[in-house]
Amino acid sequence: MRKAILSLAAITAVACGNSTATTSPSGAPPASAATIAVATNSKLGQILVDGSGRTLYLFEADKGTSSTCYSGCAQYWPPLLTNGAPKAGAGVTASLLGTTIRTDGTTEVTYGGHPLYYVVTDHNPGDATGQGVNNFGAPWDVVGPDGKQIG
Fold first, then answer.
1. 79 and 111 in contact (C-beta within 8 Å)?
2. Nearest 5°: CA angle at 21, between 15 and 25?
3. The whole model's pTM is what?
4. What pLDDT, in 10s, does the model give residues 76-88?
5. Distance (Å, rounded) from C-alpha 81 to C-alpha 112?
């Protein structure tokens, strides 16, 4: 019985997870200012990526620069966090970069007025498995260099 209770507690802890946002799909906290760049995706054209080439997304449920993705949502769609003002890489319009403060006090990068996220199903630079996925109540889209969703 005790073993079953401990197993149930472990499963519950994993299922509930930690609502702390991360800056990368690996879960690493932000060490420095995030860099945003533009890369060419063979199917989607010019898209926003982070400094490692990981695809960035916007959540259509977000209105303005405030994020609505927390708890389980933020575990599956981790926000792009920064420690300092985000940096404009190749192809990025610096004036479209910004930040927003999340409810946990972390700073999330915005572009064109949209908070930016990863998806845990993207494993390599160039992956865009979250494109057009309707998840957590609204669609998710890759972001173009103009700050608009690619649909």
1. no
2. 80
3. 0.82
4. 999 999 999 999 9
5. 16
Spell out the residues 6+ positions from residue 100 whose beta carbon is closer than 8 angstroms to its own. 65, 66, 67, 107, 108, 110, 115
Structure tokens at 45: 């054209």
Q: What is the pLDDT of the chain when averaged over all its residues?
A: 85
1: buried, middle or exposed (CB in 10 Å: 19+, 13-18, 0-12)? exposed
7-55 pLDDT per residue, tens: 333 333 333 333 333 345 545 556 689 999 999 999 999 999 999 999 9
**Tokens 């057009």 — which residue?**
132
Q: Take residue 147 and report the two structure tokens written for it.
A: 């700050």
Token digits of residue 54:
């990981």
CB 99 within 8 A of CB 26: no
Give domain limits for the chain: 19-150
Q: What is the per-residue pLDDT across 56-111, written as a single tens digit (0 to 9) for each?
A: 999 999 999 999 999 999 999 999 999 999 999 999 999 999 999 999 999 999 99
